[in-house]
Structure formats: structure tokens, C-alpha cells
Amino acid sequence: MIEIIDLRSDTVTKPGREMRVVIANAPVGDDQFEEDPSINLLQERIADYLQKESALWLPTGTMANQVALKVLTRPGDDVIVSKESHAVWHETGGSAANCGTQFTSIGNQGVFTPEEYLAAIKPKGHLMYPPTTLVEIENTHNRAGGIIFPQNYAEAICAISSEHRIATYLDGARLWNAAIALNQPASFLAAPFDLVAVSLSKGLGAPGGSLLAGSKDIIRQCIRYRRMFGGAMRQVGIFAAAGIYALDHNMERLAEDHANARLLAERLSSHERIILDPDTVQTNILVFSLTGSGPDAPTIVNRAKERGVLIFAFNNHTIRAVTHLDVSKAQCEQAAEILLEIMDE
Ligand SMILES: Cc1ncc(COP(=O)(O)O)c(C=O)c1O
């Protein structure tokens, strides 16, 4: 039987033995009555980590993004995001369906400058423009290849937003990766934003759970929409316990994932058909394009799968690979070898 090296996403990790023991022993209660001790503890831990007044557990990062939009916008509003953001590509049109908002996507490679932002803002009270009421920054940026949003830009953008009375939201599903790569506390990266989402089920390896963190008032409003979207649950302390374990055990090791992604990038970029600058690989995601003649991205993905390496095609010429807790350095070396062989077949 061939060994599977799954580089499709950092969401594919499975809880290990110790995490499962913690899950089995988790104190639980009815979270809709705010009586789940594990959820309460996790919410306190996250609020403390991010230095926000309050935090709220939600089952998924997608729901966190939807609830954030619902609280911070009104139907007909304009939301400024980076190009190719998760909210635009990966949430099945939820923003339009749930919140009636439209997106203006700006910048490049997951980043936009304060100048680009200022130019894109549609003022309130205009006869024709949809008012910009929210800016959403994704850090790190998934489809741009785990790119870290420059903090000086984030600070300037949030300062501009405050002048224009625009709310600020950070989709920090992989904020931990940015924090570890920069050697900065996550609270530093979260500081300029009104509302912040973080995830436990990406690099940290828990089976589920995201949290929103912000002021008490905003989080109180999030509670209502979490329920409206069907995400208010009961004895979810079993998830929270896994999340607490993940925070305690799997945070510092994210640096290994970053080193493995860099290693993969360095090896793959040696191939003439692969366009990828290893220096742009800042965290655990690499996105590369294929040039010249030869098999397209879906064909490469299928051939890799036959050899046990799972990767993900964004389109005919773009592929993503993600390193995580369940792939070792040796497996990344092996995956690089297999992928290079396939490119030459
Ligand atoms: C940047 C970003 N935000 C949000 C999400 C959504 O998270 P979930 O899969 O928990 O819904 C993801 C998922 O990969 C993501 O990459």
C-alpha cells in the first residue's frame, strides 16, 4: 500500500491520541445556557490571547465570517477585501445570500495598500454609490499562498477606517501562522481591528471550532446571528477541549510547517515549468503556477494522487500545497521528489 502524503490543506489533520483523551475527558454543559465550562474557558483564553474584551466560539471559520459580516454591515453595503479572499471565493456566495452585501476586491497577492484602500472607499450618503461600511483583511491569505498582511498597512487601513466610520474585520483563520512567522503575539496583529476571527482547525490541528473576538457589545450581537445561522450548539466542550489542547501544544511547532513549506518550494522551483519564488513562501502554504507545454494542473494533481501525494488545483495552471501537523519534513522531501518526477513524465 502506498503511503499518503496529504498536502491539500492544513484542515486535513486528525486528532492524535493525546488530543482524543482530552476530548473524552472534557467537562461539558449546555453552551446555549453559557454553561459549558470548556467553551467558557476557551473563550476566555482566546479573548486574553487576542487582548479583546470578549470571544465567542463558532463551529466554523465560514460561519465566523458570515456572522461578522451580518453584524458589521447592512444590506446594500459595500465591503472592501483583498483579491481572491476566502469570503469571495470559498463561501458559496454567503455574503450576498445572508447579508445582501457586495464586495470590492483590491490589491495584489493578498495585500492592498492604504492608498489603494482610500481610492476604493465609496462614501456614505452618495446619490449612487453603495456605502463602504466594512473592510476585511485576510491574514494570512489563503489563495495568495499564506502571505502575511503587512502590519503597518493594517494599522494605516484601520486608522483610515476609523476616520470614515468603516468597521474593520480580520479573517485570521491562520493568524497563528502569521504570529509565529513574525515572532509577534497574535494580539499585536489583532490590535487595530474591531472584530477578529481565529481558527483552531487549521494549523493547530483541532477537529473544529473558530472564535470571534472583539468588544463585549459586538460579541453580544454575534451571539444572536450565530443562533440565526444555526451555529448555537450544546455540549461543544468536546471541541473546546481539543482547541485548548491545540493552543497549548501545537502553536510553537507551526514554525516546522513553515520550514517544510519553504523546503518544498525550494525543491519545486528548480523545475523549469514551475513558477514559484521560494522567498515568497512566508508560512505554510505554497501556490505555484505552471508554464510552458506539458500536463495541466488537474492532470498533475491526478498523477500525484496515483503516487500518494495529494495536492489541490485552483484552476488549469495553478496548484496549492499546504504543510501541517500530519506531514513530516521527510514526507515533504519525498513529496517534492514525486512531484518533480511527475512534471517530467
Ligand atoms: C482564510 C480562511 N478563512 C476562513 C476559512 C473557513 O474556515 P472553515 O473551513 O472552518 O469554515 C478558511 C478555510 O480554509 C480560510 O482559509
Folded structure, characterized:
- By secondary structure, the protein is of the alpha/beta class.
- The protein folds into 2 domains: 17-249, Aspartate Aminotransferase, domain 2, CATH 3.40.640.10; 253-344, Aspartate Aminotransferase, domain 1 (Alpha-Beta Complex), CATH 3.90.1150.
- The protein contains 14 helices and 13 strands.
- The protein has helices spanning 17-24, 37-50, 61-72, 86-89, 94-99, 114-120, 151-163, 175-182, 186-190, 216-228, 237-249, 254-268, 297-306, 329-344; strands at residues 5-6, 54-58, 78-82, 102-106, 132-138, 167-172, 195-199, 210-214, 274-275, 285-290, 309-310, 312-315, 318-322.
- The protein has a 7-stranded mixed β-sheet with strand order 2-8-7-6-5-3-4, with helices on both faces.
- Strand 5 (132-138), helix 7 (151-163) and strand 6 form a beta-alpha-beta unit.
- Helix 3 (61-72) crosses helix 10 (216-228) and helix 12 (254-268) runs parallel beside helix 14 (329-344).
- The protein is globular, with a radius of gyration of 20 Å.
- The two termini are 22 Å apart.
- The model has no long low-confidence stretch (mean pLDDT 97).
- Residues 11, 60-62, 65, 86, 138, 142, 171, 173, 199, 201, 210 line the site of pyridoxal-5'-phosphate (PLP).
Q: How would the global form be characterised?
A: globular
Radius of gyration: 20 Å
Helix content: 40-55%
Strands ordered across the widest β-sheet: 2-8-7-6-5-3-4
Distance between the termini: 22 Å
Give the beta-strand count.
13
Bound compounds, please?
pyridoxal-5'-phosphate
Topology pattern, helix = H, strand = E: EHHEHEHHEHEHEHHEEHHHEEHEEEH
Secondary-structure-based class equals alpha/beta
**What fraction of residues sit in β-strands?**
15-25%
The profile of the biggest β sheet is: 7 strands, mixed
